[in-house]
Amino acid sequence: MNDKPEKFIDENGLRLDGRQIDEIRPMTIKIGVLSRADGSCYMEWGNNKILVAVYGPRELHPRRLQKSDSALIRYRYNMAAFSVEDRIRPGPSRRSTEISKVSREAFEPVVMTNLYPSAVIDVFAEVLQADAGTRTAAINAASIALADAGIPMKSLVAACAVGKVDGKLVLDLNKPEDNYGQADLPIAMTQDGEITLLQMDGNLTQEEFKQALEMCKKGCLQILEMQKEALKGKFGEDAAIEVPED
Ligand code: CDP
Predict the structure, then answer these.
(1) Which residue in 163, 166, 167 sits closest to 175, CA to CA?
(2) Atom of ligand 1 at shortest distance to CA of 173?
(3) 102, 180, 188, 224: most buried, per Cβ within 10 A?
(4) Alpha-carbon gap, residue 73 to 152, rounded angstroms
(5) What is the ipTM of this complex?
(6) Domains in the chain, ordered, with CATH?
């Protein structure tokens, strides 16, 4: 069945879900929702529902995988079987393996793994309900769960996607925009604007790409503020990320 909308942006410049082209979906954040994990976060972003658990730093087994000068980060992105309309087959897929890899790499530049030789930091991101942008939502939640676990990081990481529909760039794609749009550009960045993940589907001109980056940066800055507010809500005003000496 093809349920491609005829138009994605109406005559008032609003999208199918009523948002402006540069508006992100509403986000709610709960921290420390899992008592067994060292850090955790439950996030709703639009209709996405994501749960992230962080364990570690803890000793890595088997020992032959240990790195003598740093901790290993493992990141597992997984979609629950019931998270989308068609049941997701349990177990890793090409897509989840790719998302796990790029998401791990989005955190490697910020997590101070050098402080924990021979250890492992495990990030489990479970998508309970998916509605486009789950990799970016999971990264936003993982960033908070890592902070909740007290893991030293040089910066939080925030992520969102820019796409193109009806020939216009739009921030934070919803499902129809993601499925039928002309481009999808998920990006993760630090609070200094250092990009730690960039992927792209579809086509953009060089000029559109530059504009998309700027748009994404603004979205990520808003998300960083929400992440910080949520952490302050749990840990108080002193929740600033402390950067220990190398
Ligand atoms: O979720 P994200 O945008 O990071 O990744 P995607 O591969 O671009 O998937 C876009 C959306 O398609 C997901 O968020 C799901 O809503 C949906 N999807 C699905 O219905 N079934 C799948 N097997 C994979 C994705």
Answers:
(1) 163
(2) 3
(3) 188
(4) 13
(5) 0.99
(6) 27-235 (3.30.230.70)
